[in-house]
Design goal:
The chain is built from three helices and two strands; from the N terminus they run αββαα. By secondary structure, it is α+β, with helices and mostly antiparallel strands.
């Protein structure tokens, strides 16, 4: 990988796909422990904003069963 005369760097497609970096993703460079790190910041899609907040249903369970158990109805 090489830095262009404009200071630009191309992130390889495999890494973009693996880390979910799209043309809408904000990133920044940070220095950590003497190394230059590219860090993904912010979330633009509604799904990314709630990722990790919403609990997943246990495998083999459906939504109706889950609601009955959590609401006690």
């Amino acid at each position: 990988m090489r830095v262009t005369s404009k200071g630009q760097v191309t992130v390889p497609k495999e890494l973009r796909d693996h880390f979910g970096i799209t043309q809408e993703t904000d990133v920044e460079f940070r220095e950590e422990r003497g190394k230059l790190m590219l860090v993904k910041i912010g979330a633009h899609s509604a799904i990314e904003k709630v990722r990790g907040i919403v609990k997943r249903l246990p495998l083999g369970k459906d939504v109706d069963d889950y609601l009955q158990r959590t609401r006690g109805t």
